[in-house]
Structures are given as structure tokens and as C-alpha cells.
Amino acid sequence: MELGAYEELWAQDGQSFKALAELFGRSHNDLPSCFVSAGAARARAVEVLRIFQKKHVEDAGFVVHGTMDYPEALRDARHPVQFLYYRGELDLLSMPMRVAVVGSREASEDGVRRARKLAKCLVEDGVVVVSGLAKGIDTAAHTAALEAGGKTIGVIGTPISESYPKENSDLQERIAREHLLVSQVPVIRYSRQTPYWNKLFFPERNATMSALSQATVIVEAGETSGSLTQARAALQQGRKLFILDNCFRRGLKWPERLHAQGAIRVTDYSEIRDHLEFPSSQN
Known about the structure:
The protein is of the alpha/beta class. The chain is 42% helix and 14% strand. It has twelve helices and nine strands. A nine-stranded mixed beta sheet has the order 1-2-6-5-4-3-7-8-9, sandwiched between helices. It is globular, with a radius of gyration of 18 Å.
């Protein structure tokens, strides 16, 4: 019922995460089904399940605000999502430490190397590596975490039934089956919109990724990178934001601006580790 109701809410013209957050913010105990007729919800649920079957993702589940499995960390987002699709080990959202490693899609060789080293160090400390399954830094972080035998979470900007970019479809499927894949993107709305409008889901994905993590590390990024959306969200949410020192040496404006707002400039993992609040047994 809640799956179909969520999708039906998104079928309304002009719907957005902000509008939905405001709707549910007026009554914290309401579920999506409180705003949608049972018949409409059932019809949408059938439509979504049909898409899942066609895409071979029959293992997809979901969590809703107000239920036990909902990750309360999401409430720290400016426009917290009420509903989250997932595939895989939902318990990874309850692990003591989750750190997002993000950066440019068109990453340099040095950037890829730094992302891989950082992910490996995080795994060695028992940290779950979170990223967005994009090209470049995200891919490097996920693959290095897997190679090191660690756990990783993919937070995607497409529906749970889609993969982007296509060259990462195998990586995404492995994460979904062996680790955790999450998405807040409505399946039906996405299928009926143009790519121009669907790309607007990616910045919202970054805000959610930050909320699900205790900290975000920017490995490298340009002035218009989507990683900066996550950086701003992290600061707003009270999460730690780390910026690797190499970002400050490229003539960019954003590193100093975010540093002035509370981001932490670091040169290597040891400095990041000093700032992370590990459980006492890991110190």
C-alpha cells in the first residue's frame, strides 16, 4: 500500500521532495497512504511491481518514515525523504561508521588513486564506504572497498530498477546483491519524464547520501560538481566534511569557501581518522 501511495503522490504535477517534506512535516505520524485512495495506491503498486519484474529486480524492498526500519539519520536532511527503495543488506545503515567518498566523474589518475587508497583505509578500520556509483571517484571508491573485502553502499540518482551509467551496471548489481543499494527516486515518475527533468534527482540523491553518512570526503571536484551539493548538505546536516589538500592547490574557489564554513582540510587518512568518532572499541 505505501509503495503505491508514494508513487501516486509523485504522479501529481509539480511534485518535489521539498513539497513532500512539507506535506509530511505538518503531520509527523502520517504515512503516504494517508493522502492517497486505496484504489489509486493499489494500481500504482501493480505498475511498479510490473516494472520491477521486467527489470529483474524482484528483490527490491522499501522503508517508510514511521516504521521500525526507517533510518532516522535521514531526518537531518533539509527535505527528508519519507520513502526509500533498497536492495541488499539494509542493516548496513545501522553500522557504527559510514563515510561517503565522492568527487568528479572525470577524475584524474591521481584522484582515482587517492579515492582507492582512502576506501581501502576506511575498510581496514571497519568503516562502510558510501558513494553514488557515478563514473570516476565514486567507481574507484566502491571497487576499492570491494577489493579490500569491505562493505559498501551505493546511493543512486535513478530508480532502484535502473542503472547509470550503463558501464557500471555489473558493479551496481553486485552491490545490490552483496551489499546495499538505495534510491529515493520514484519509479513511475522517472519513466515518464525526459532526461532533462530526471537529472534533477541527482542533487537530491547527494543530500540523502550525506544524511546516511557520518562524514563525507571530497577527493577532487570542479566548481560545478554535484559533490558540492553534498558538501553543502553535510555542513547543513551537522556532518563532518573533509576536503583533501590537493583540492586547495588547483586554483579553485570552492575549497576555501567550504573550509571557511566548517569543512576540514586534510592531507591523508590519518587526519580523517583523528576526526572520526569511532566506537571506543575501535580507538
